[in-house]
Amino acid sequence: MTSFVETPLTSQISVRGTAPAGFPTVPNTTAVVDGNTVVWLGPDEWLVLGGSEADFSDAAAAVDVSANRIAFDLSGANTLDVLASGCGLDLAEEAFAIGGCAQTLLARAQVILIRQASDAFRILVRPSFAPYTRAWLADAIAGSLADPAL
User: Fold this and answer.
1) Which InterPro entries does the record match to this protein (predicted)?
2) What is the dihedral of CA 103, 107, 110, 113, to 10 degrees?
């Protein structure tokens, strides 16, 4: 069964500059550094899920953006079908591996997708789009369960 839950994040730090040790440098990947997930957003930009600004004093910029995104964790047998109904990315594991990430649109809302397992994704969305995304996920899950082809 596919389901989603809003997941509280302790903090979110935007880091800019030269990649600190352990940070992903390959586009659209993540890494775990000191127990925190680091999301590659651009050649000199990362989002750290956890930690504090003080942890990155050597960075060109480190800004607490904790109020900037809400997290939903989506998992279950129909996860790929649910996401595919609102996202144009190829989400097959060969194209979007575990630990992969992408900034994309999901049902017209700007999101960051992070693949956590074969059938599990974290979805980061702006708070103003969270109610819409929550309702869309519920509808998409209900639709995938009602469609015997899925």
Assistant:
1) SoxG, TrmE/GcvT-like
2) -30
Same domain, 77 and 130: yes
98 — pLDDT class (breaks 50, 70, 90): very high
Q: Are residues 84 and 123 in the same domain?
A: yes
Is the whole-model pTM more than 0.85? yes
CB 1 within 8 A of CB 76: yes
Range of the domain at 31: 10-67
Write out pLDDT tens, residues 29-39: 999 999 999 99
φ, ψ for residue 130, nearest 5 deg: -60, -45
Number of domains present in the structure of the chain:
2
What are the backbone dihedrals phi and psi of residue 57, each rounded to the nearest 5 degrees, phi first?
-65, -20
For residue 139, report the phi and psi dihedrals to the nearest 5 degrees: -65, -45
Instruction: Specify burial of residue 34 (Cβ count, 10 A radius: 0-12, 13-18, 19+).
Output: exposed
* Mean pLDDT (the chain, rounded): 95
Q: Spell 99-131 as b/e; 16+ CB within 10 A means b.
A: bbbbebebbebebbbbbbeeeebbbbbeeebbe
